[in-house]
Amino acid sequence: MQLSIHPHIKNCWPLGGIVITGSTPGQWLRVLNQLELASTNLTLYPLPGAHPHSVAGCLVPMSAQQLSCLPSGAWQYYQVVSNHLFIAANATLFPFLTPPEAHKLFSAQLHFAHPHFGWVVLPDPMPVSALFSVPQMAAGRVTKPHIPAPIPEAVTAFMIVPVAPEEAIEQLMSSHPQERMPHKPLNWAEKIRLALYELFSSPMKKVAGQTSLLKKVTEDHESLLERNQAVADKLLKMLRDNPAEALKYAIPIGKDDALPRGNISVGSLDLSKIWSSFSLFQSSGSAGGIVVLGDRHYQLMKQYQESAKHLEKQGAYQDAAFVYLKLLNRPADAAAVLERGNLYAEAAAVYLHHAKNKEKAALCYEKANMIEAAANIYKELHQYEKVGDMYASVGQTDLANTWYNEAANEHLKKAAYLPAALIVQHKMGNASLAQYVLLDGWNKASNPTPCLQHYFNNIADDKMMMEALDEVVSGLPNVTKAGQMIDVLVDQYKTRASLAEPIADIAIAVIARYTAQDASLLAMLRHFTPNDPELIKDAVRYKTMRGAK
Question: 3-state class of 135 per DSSP?
Fold first, then answer.
């Protein structure tokens, strides 16, 4: 049995130590001092270098608790197999060893999987204290200064920390004190005067010129007409003429069943300012008045919609959002208006708390460069690749790779090998591990052809490509796999002009090997021998003869 090590997407055994590179004990001590481990009772094992009588570094076995406290740095983590064999992290043994097998092979002495020349028997351990001698300390008190924060040479990324959604919306809207619009009903004398004005309005219009008395009569007539107008009509007129001002007196009509019912005259409305501000999170406490809109409901709703569109065209995105959210009860439209106005933080708050659309909220936080808020929502949505994208956008590579790895694992749980490999290759930058995942997908996935196509497409060198082709073809287990291999070879034959001839030879050999089991494979010859009609005719005759039998 030949035991070998292969890359793996996760650790198969617990971590048991770290390897510090360096050819001198002084280099090891600097790292141990950086980790604050130089004064502990740890032991270490020197590791041989690639040349005779050389040292490449040392292995420092550590407990799981000690390893969990280590920061990232210039050292490599190693797994420990059955307490007797140390192999690199993110790797596995092939074939996989059971604990009894590992104990039988390596129990006599500790072994180490050396990256250059294989298995190494570790020498006797040496304590850390043997590397240095403690100098005589002079009497006195030493004060250690605080290490100042380093000043970056350049800013490569930045994030905006979002405030609470309620506060984000409140900052949008300007406050307005409550007011009451002057509105005095007509008394019996004023009603009689208005009736007389209406009776003689036509003759007065025919009078040439405007005397001072006639001018006063006309102004009094217009004043009485305005006061006698239905309040709902006044609100409609205000919305058409001055929508921003009319919003101070507007009433919500988003739900018909929210309107009052009762024996109240249609159109009776006290036009007082019922909004102290245009806050989208404010409750609509009325300063007084009862609304029964009756047949004015549809007209008012239509006017609200037109006013919202007009306000948006004028660039008043906050006011337009106020109309959609508070007056029409359409939070998705309110958030969309804010998003179109580049008010992404406010739009995210409305999407999140009113429209209940977390994906849209995360996208708005992303546009606002509020990376942490966006990442938290993507975590809730289990969109781990997007979480990795967020952290990668601000240069937090280690954190991004953690979530990319989580996304790849989620794909592998569903046997989606190709998406997992693409994340590993393009997002994590680990091309060798991606090739391992693609090859695993070729062997295990329900749709293995795309995995193998990407596997070959990633190999640019012609010599390595031929070696990979030979390896895969030699391991074909059955005729079904052979047919899938032919499909891949057709694609490679068309895209790799420099290897067209050897690829065609391999394809013809595979077809010849499995034709007895599946004569339909002969039809694939036309892709590799387009200029040889005789060969195609022979293939057709062979297939026909087999069918006749």
Answer: coil
